[in-house]
Write a sequence for this structure.
């Protein structure tokens, strides 16, 4: 679909193709014919594709820079430590695809086969897909508007040959916009187990998390729980704790109590996390005795328990 | 962060009136936050609607005489960024301050932002490295919490000035949470000289770079 005009009423709306702002739009005739109102056939195609994927988890945050991609990567690493568990990590942060670097896969390219695009494998049981693999240079910018990003997400869900997967983790950009709506919409006929929402302790971050929680309620996306990242800093020299991001309103703990949402855990700030990510290695392997590793493992276990207690069933989410 | 939550936006003959955040009326602010019924309300909009609002923020707000218009953007290189550049281009001079954290993962993303600037003809005033080291208040040991060096690497990759590093300071985050005036209340903070120096550089370099 090409560029949409300002004031576009939406392809699914009753005014599609008929509104004043539709004049001159290249899609006007298509919309006026009612084609836009029909459900996207890709939704059924993706439902078929997702039949081999047992559990689907979206990782969301309201704010940028809270450690969402770091968490998604380590959730994938943690689950894949059991070699009998097949894990897939899908990065739908189209403009800022950091997953390839964090997973040590920078420079890898995607291959096509008869059954679709092949994910890039970190381990035999851990496959990754990201727009980063489609870019030829680390300086390439993906300067795309919403509709083009949505098209890419559709392709990732429909055309990647994921194979038999126990957990598909979808890493998202921060916010509540095109990418999030598209992910929920395209997966609406498959079953999303739920969303994990990442925050840091401060109110400025929690405020955006509350919006994210409202988004989940609006699109009927179950919430597995909240992870509070960068919870506390332990000085490597004197071992004393400092709260670099002070929880001025009680942090995620108080927010989760107020909203009756599970707090999956709190991860302390360990400078080695950043270093492992920069090297593209699993922090869980690099620093098995760090309090942050214990926190990650406990959170991963709770997510597995949630998925185990909520087996996949047919459910249709509200499409946007 | 600027103590303006819950304020309302009014209309006047020349458009929307921005919200002044200080007594002296030296800083005015416009944000979609002022248009929400509640702070928890999610803005679940696709690109075209966001673009339309950004154009309105530029064209329909009665900013008055300004020395500097600072535009805070979300991460990425998408609708909001294109809309902002398109809306502001007729009102040159226009430049970009690019912010990164020290680690390579951040540099990996932010270098794409620099490409965006190049492709859209947006001049880069310089790179700022944020969250650059933390001095433990108990023992004064400085730890590179988010790795190190990213800001300078990025600036040299792009051939633009490196404006400086801002260290992590819990008092800065706390004062933003509580809507305090950080510069007035914490002049002794390690973040203050860094922020001040960067502001000075922007003010002295901006006219030369952007004309």
């Amino acid at each position: 679909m090409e560029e949409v005009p300002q004031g576009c009423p939406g392809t699914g709306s009753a005014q599609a193709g008929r509104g004043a702002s539709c004049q001159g739009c290249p899609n006007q005739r298509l919309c006026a014919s009612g084609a836009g109102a029909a459900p996207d056939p890709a939704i059924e195609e993706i439902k078929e594709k997702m039949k081999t994927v047992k559990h689907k988890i979206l990782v969301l945050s309201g704010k940028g820079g809270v450690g969402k991609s770091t968490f998604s990567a380590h959730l994938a690493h943690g689950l894949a430590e059991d070699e009998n568990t097949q894990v897939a990590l899908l990065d739908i942060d189209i403009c800022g695809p950091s997953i390839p670097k964090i997973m040590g896969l920078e420079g890898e390219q995607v291959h096509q086969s008869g059954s679709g695009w092949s994910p890039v494998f970190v381990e035999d049981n851990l496959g990754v897909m990201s727009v980063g693999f489609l870019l030829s240079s680390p300086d390439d910018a993906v300067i795309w508007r919403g509709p083009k990003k949505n098209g890419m997400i559709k392709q990732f869900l429909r055309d990647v040959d994921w194979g038999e997967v126990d957990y598909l983790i979808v890493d998202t950009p921060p916010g509540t916009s095109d990418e999030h709506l598209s992910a929920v919409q395209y997966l609406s006929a498959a079953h999303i187990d739920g969303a994990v929402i990442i925050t840091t302790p401060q109110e400025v971050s929690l405020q955006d998390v509350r919006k994210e929680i409202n988004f989940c309620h609006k699109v009927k996306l179950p919430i597995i729980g909240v992870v509070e990242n960068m919870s506390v800093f332990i000085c490597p020299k004197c071992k004393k704790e400092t709260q670099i991001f002070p929880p001025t309103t009680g942090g995620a703990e108080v927010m989760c109590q107020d909203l009756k949402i599970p707090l999956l855990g709190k991860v302390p700030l360990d400078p080695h996390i950043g270093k492992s990510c920069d090297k593209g290695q699993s922090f869980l392997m690099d620093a098995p005795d760090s309090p942050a590793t214990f926190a990650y493992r406990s959170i991963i276990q709770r997510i597995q328990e949630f998925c185990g207690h909520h087996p996949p069933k047919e459910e249709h989410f509200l499409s946007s | 962060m600027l103590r303006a939550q819950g304020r309302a936006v009014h209309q006047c003959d020349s458009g929307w009136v921005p919200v002044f955040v200080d007594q002296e009326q030296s800083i005015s602010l416009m944000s979609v936050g002022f248009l929400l019924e509640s702070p928890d309300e999610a803005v679940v909009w696709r690109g075209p609607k966001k673009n339309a609002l950004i154009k309105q923020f530029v064209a329909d707000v009665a900013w008055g005489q300004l020395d500097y218009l600072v535009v805070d953007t979300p991460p990425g290189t998408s609708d909001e960024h294109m809309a902002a550049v398109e809306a502001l281009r007729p009102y040159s001079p226009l430049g970009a301050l690019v912010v990164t954290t020290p680690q390579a993962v951040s540099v990996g993303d932010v270098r794409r932002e620099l490409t965006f600037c190049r492709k859209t003809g947006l001049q880069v005033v310089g790179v700022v490295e944020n969250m650059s080291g933390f001095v433990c208040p108990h023992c004064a040991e400085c730890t590179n919490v988010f790795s190190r060096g990213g800001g300078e690497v990025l600036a040299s990759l792009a051939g633009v000035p490196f404006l400086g590093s801002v260290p992590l300071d819990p008092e800065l985050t706390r004062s933003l949470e509580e809507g305090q005036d950080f510069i007035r209340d914490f002049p002794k903070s390690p973040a203050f000289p860094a922020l001040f120096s960067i502001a000075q550089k922007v003010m002295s370099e901006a006219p030369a770079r952007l004309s």
Chain B has two domains: 1-93, 95-210.
